Ammonium transporter Rh type B
Amino acid sequence: MARTSSHATGLRVQLPPLCFLFQAAIIILFSFFVRYNHETDSSLWHRSNHSDMDNDFYFRYPSFQDVHTMIFIGFGFLMTFLQRYGFSSIGFNFLLSAFSLQWSTLVQGFFHSFHGGKIYIGVESMINADFCTGAVLISFGAVLGKTSPVQLLLMSLLEVTLFGVNEFILLNLLGVKDAGGSMTIHTFGAYFGLVLSRVLYRSHLDKSKHREGSVYHSDLFAMIGTIFLWIFWPSFNSAPTNTGDGQHRTALNTYYSLGASTLSTFALSALLSREGKLDMVHIQNAALAGGVVVGTSGEMMITPFGALMAGFLAGIISTLGYKFLMPILESKFKVQDTCGVHNLHGMPGVLGALLGALVAGLATHQTYGDGLKSVFPLIAEGHRNATSQAVYQLFGLFVTLVLASLGGGIGGLLLRLPCLNSPPDSQCYEDQIYWEVPLEHEDEVQEHLRSEDTETQA
Amino acid sequence: MARTSSHATGLRVQLPPLCFLFQAAIIILFSFFVRYNHETDSSLWHRSNHSDMDNDFYFRYPSFQDVHTMIFIGFGFLMTFLQRYGFSSIGFNFLLSAFSLQWSTLVQGFFHSFHGGKIYIGVESMINADFCTGAVLISFGAVLGKTSPVQLLLMSLLEVTLFGVNEFILLNLLGVKDAGGSMTIHTFGAYFGLVLSRVLYRSHLDKSKHREGSVYHSDLFAMIGTIFLWIFWPSFNSAPTNTGDGQHRTALNTYYSLGASTLSTFALSALLSREGKLDMVHIQNAALAGGVVVGTSGEMMITPFGALMAGFLAGIISTLGYKFLMPILESKFKVQDTCGVHNLHGMPGVLGALLGALVAGLATHQTYGDGLKSVFPLIAEGHRNATSQAVYQLFGLFVTLVLASLGGGIGGLLLRLPCLNSPPDSQCYEDQIYWEVPLEHEDEVQEHLRSEDTETQA
Amino acid sequence: MARTSSHATGLRVQLPPLCFLFQAAIIILFSFFVRYNHETDSSLWHRSNHSDMDNDFYFRYPSFQDVHTMIFIGFGFLMTFLQRYGFSSIGFNFLLSAFSLQWSTLVQGFFHSFHGGKIYIGVESMINADFCTGAVLISFGAVLGKTSPVQLLLMSLLEVTLFGVNEFILLNLLGVKDAGGSMTIHTFGAYFGLVLSRVLYRSHLDKSKHREGSVYHSDLFAMIGTIFLWIFWPSFNSAPTNTGDGQHRTALNTYYSLGASTLSTFALSALLSREGKLDMVHIQNAALAGGVVVGTSGEMMITPFGALMAGFLAGIISTLGYKFLMPILESKFKVQDTCGVHNLHGMPGVLGALLGALVAGLATHQTYGDGLKSVFPLIAEGHRNATSQAVYQLFGLFVTLVLASLGGGIGGLLLRLPCLNSPPDSQCYEDQIYWEVPLEHEDEVQEHLRSEDTETQA
C-alpha cells in the first residue's frame, strides 16, 4: 500500500528532474547575471579607501544570521507539531528555502540591484532572499500536509516571482515603508497561501483527521521553532532598516511588542477553554503576533508604549482567530489552513499595515528630527506630506492583497494540474508517502527477536 | 478528575485577569515614563554628529541576542527534563520571562536610568531586563512543578522588584562590581527560590515522586537547554562589561572556565556512581557551573589559569552538591529544590562572589594599567584601595543573601494565600492540570479504529 | 548484566583519573605559558590609543559564537540520530569538545602565537580551538557507538596534537590557504577517523545491527544538528578570513554553495531509492557538503556561479557516497563509518582542496586588485606565481592525507591497548553501558502501580 501511495505522489519521476532543472537554470542565470558587489568583490573593495569596519557585513551579518535561524529552524520546527509529519515539515521547509533563497536572489536582483546588465550581491541580498523565503514558508504553512514537494517547489517558483513584483511596486514605485514586511512578507505570504489552499480544497480531508493533531513530543519540537522565532524577531524587523538609531529602535520596539503579545495570548488561551487549560496551538503561534504587527511600524517612532499596545492587540486578535475564525474559515469559506497562518500572519499582518499607515500619517519633523530623511525620505525631501504617505501605505496594503490573492489563485490552479499527483485524502499529514520512515523502537526489538528466533531454528 | 484538578488550580478564573491586569498596568506606566534614549530616538540620535557604528547597538546587540537565547531556549529547555512537565517548563518559562522583562524595564529604569521623570531605554535596558529575568527563572527552577502559573507570576512581580532594589544597593550604593551577576543574578535567584521553596514545603510530595524523573527523550530536550546555556555563557558575562578589552577578556575567561567545569563534572559524575555510569542530571547542570563562578570576576584580570581553576572547582562543588547535599537539603532542611538550583546557582554563585572579592583585593595599577578606571573606577579615582573594594564585594554578597532570603520568605507566604490554588501533592510535575495535552499516538490510532468500527456498525 | 558491561568499559576506574589528569596538566601548562594578548589584557589594550571598535572582538565574536553553536549543538545533535545512543552522542561530543578546545589552545598556541616563551590568546585563539575541535568531532563520527569515552579522550589528545602539526606545516611552512579548513579540518578529521575505524574493525558488529538505525524522534533531534550546521556554515568559513570584503565574500559564497548542495541532495535521494522516497540520512548529511567544499576556496574570487557549481557537485558526490560507496567501504575495505564522515567530510573535503588549488592557480592581479595581498600575500609580494601557489595547495592536501592516515593508524593501535576496554560487539550504539538511563514512561507507571499494590497489601 505504501508503495502505491508513494507512486501516486510521483516523487521519483518528478522531484529529481525538477530539482535538477531549477538548479541548472539558476546556475546558468547566475553565471550570466550575478556578480559580487563593491563590498564582497576583492578588487572593488580595495579600490576605495575605507576602514574594514565600514563594510556592511559588520552592520548586518549578525542580524542576518538570526533571520537565517528563523527561516530554517524557526519555521521548520514550528511546523513539526503534526504527529506524523515531522520529516516533511522540517525537510520540505529545508528544500523550499534552499531553492527560494537562490531564486529570489535573481528575482529581487532584477528588480533592485540590476546595473549595467548585472546583479550585484552582498549581505543585503542574503537578507532580502531570506525575507522572500519567509513569505513562501508562510504559504507553505497553509497547505502543510496536503501538497507534494513537487507542488511546493512550483508554488515557490511562482510565489518568489510575484513577491518580487509586489515588493518592487510597494517599495520602489509607491515609496511605501515596510522594513519588517507586515505587508510584503506576512500579508502577502498568508493570503497567497490561503487562496491557494482554497483552490485546493478537499471535502474529504476528514479521512486524515486522526493525523492532524499533535503528540506530546511533537509539540515540544514545535516549541523549538516558536521560541527561536520569538527571540530573533527583533533581528528580523531590524535587519534591513537604516543603520544606527534605525536598527536599534526597531529591535527595541519588536522586543516589547512580543512581550505584550505573549501575555495577552496566555490570558486569552486560558480564558477561552472550557476548563481553563492552556492550548499549545495558541502559545506556539499567537504569542508571535507581536512580531508581525510591528513589521511596518517597528522602525518608526511608535514609542515603547505604542509597541506594547500593538503587541497586546495582536496577541488577542490572533488567539481569537484560532479559536473562533479558523473553524468558520473551513466550514463556510472552504479554506483549510493547517497552521492557522491567517491568525498568525494574515490578520496581524493587515493590522500591522494599518498601524504603519497610521504612524506614517502622524510623522512630523519634530518627532524624527534629521532622522526623518532616513525613515521617510519622501516626506523629508518635500515630495509628500505625512497624510499622503499614509495613503500610499494603505494603497500598498491593497496592492498586496490583490496580488497575493491573484497569485494564490493562479498557483492553486497550477497545482491542480492532473500530472502533479497530490497525496490522497486519506494520506495527508503522513511522512510515510515521501520518506523512508524508520520502524519504531518496539517494532525493531520485536523484529530483532524474531530474527534471533529464526537463527536459532536454523 | 482532570476537570476537578484544573478547577483546583483556578487557571481560568485567575490567570486571565492577572495577565490582563499586569499587562495593562505596564502599558500605562510605559506611556507615562518610558522613552527612547539618545541612541534609539530618531531626533536625539541625529542631533549629534557621530558615525552610525558608534551606536551601542553594534557593541552589544549580538551579545544580547545570545543572552536572549539563553533565557528563552536555555532555561526553558533545561527544565523540560521532567517526563510530564515539558509544556509547563517551556511554556511558563516563556510567560514569566515575557512578563519579567517588561516589568524589570520599569523597575530597573526607576533605579538606573530615571532622568527628569522619564526612563530612557536602549539595548542596555534589554540586556538588564533579560538578566533580571534570569534570576526569576533560577527561582522558578527551585519550585518547578509545584506552583501554578498564577503563583509564579506573583513571585515574578515580587522578585523583579527586589532584584532591582538589591542591584541598586550593590552597583550604585556600594560600588560593587558584578557584571555577570554571580551575586545579583545567581546567588539572589537561587536563595530567593530556595527560601520560597522552603516555605512551600510539601511533606507528601512523594505522591508525585513517580513523575519527578526524566524519560529518555525529555533528557535530550533538556540537553538543548544545557548546551545553549553553555555556548552562550561567554556572551552573558560579557554583554554588560566595558567595551573593548573588557568584553573580550570576559568572554575569554568564561569560555575556559566552562571547559574546565565540564571536565571536572564528567570526572566526578562517573566517580560517584556505584557502577561508574554518568548521570544526566550532573551533565545537564553542573557542567554549567563554570559560567556562574566567573560571573563577578570574569571582567577582571583573573588570568586564563585562574579561569580554569575557578571552573574546575565549580564543577566539582556543583556535582558534589547534586550527589550529597541535595538529599540532605530535603530531608533535614525541608527544601525541595526540583532543579537543584542550589548546586548550579547557589553555591557556585557564592563561590563566584568570593572569588570576585579576592581578585578585586589583588587589583593593582600595574596589572590593569589605564584600564583600571574601566574595571575599578573607584580604585582608579583614589576613592578606595583594593582591599576596601574587596570588603565592599563581600558586603554585597551579604546584602544579597539577606535580601534574597527575606524576599523568598515573603514570597512564600504570599504564595500560600489560600485563594492561590496550588497543584495538589498528587498532581505535581503534571502538565495535564494546566494544558490541553494531546493523546499519545497509540491512543489516537486506537480511537480512530474504534470510530471506524462504529461507522461500520452504523 | 548491565553492571558487567559497565565494568567492562572501565568507566569508573579510568574516566575520572584521566579527566583529572588532563585538566590538571592543562591548568599547570596554562599557568606557565598562557597570557592575555594585547586585545584582552587590560594594561596592554589601554596602553595604545585606539577606538574600542578596533578590537578584534567586534569583527569576529559574532562569527565565533556561530561556530561555537555548530561545534556543540550542530555536531552534537547531528549524531543523536541513533535510537539508543543520544546521551552518548550529545554527552561525549560535549566532553571531547570541552577537552579539545583547551588542549588545542596550547598546541596551536605553541605553533602560532608563541612569543618570548608565552602564548597570547584572544578571540582568534577561541575560533582556532573550536576549529580544531571540529576535526576531532568528525573523527568521532567515524567511530561513534564503538568506542568508550576513555578511548575517545585519548584519541582527542593525539588528534589535536597532530592537527596542530599539520596546520602548522600547511599554513606556516607551505603558505597554503585554507580558511574554512577543507583540508586541515574536513579532510584531516575524516581520514584520521576512517583509518582509526579501520584499525578498530569489528567483524561481529552485526550483533548490534538492530541498534544502528534511527527512530522517528531521533531523526528529528538529528535535524536540529543538521540545520544549525547548515545555517551557520557561512560563519564557520568566514570566521578566520580577512576582515572587510574577505569575511563578507566567504559568507556569501558558502551561503549559495549550501543552497545548491541541498537541492542536488534532495534530487539524488529521491532518484536513488527504489520507491522514490527521500532518505533522512542523505538530507541530514549530504545537504551540508556545500559548506565543506568551499572551505578552501570560499575566501577566493570563485564567483557566485562557482559557489553554486561547487555545492551542486558536492551534494551529488556526497549522496552517491552514502548510497554506493559506504557499503563497499565496509565490505571490501573493512571501514565501519558510523556517520558516513567519508561522504560528508572526506570526499567533499578533498574536492574542496582541489577546487582551492584550481582557483588559486587562476588568481590574477586583475581579479583581486589590491586585495591580492590579503588573499594570496605570497603571490602579491612576488614570492610565488599563481601556478606555484596551486602546486603548494595540492602538496598541502597530500601532506594532510599522509599525516591524517598515519595519525589515525597510530591512534587506532593506541586505542586497541587491552587496558582500554571498548564496548563489546553486542553493546555498541547503546547508552546503557555508560549512562544512568531512565526507565521509559510506561515502565515507570507500571512500577508505580506495583509499588502502590505493595503498599496496599502491606
Summary: Residues 66 and 232 of chain C are 6 Å apart (CA to CA). Chain C has one domain: 22-41+62-201+213-422. Chain C touches chain B through 80 residues (CB under 8 Å). Residues 22-41+62-201+213-422 of chain C form a domain with the Ammonium transporter fold fold (CATH 1.10.3430.10).
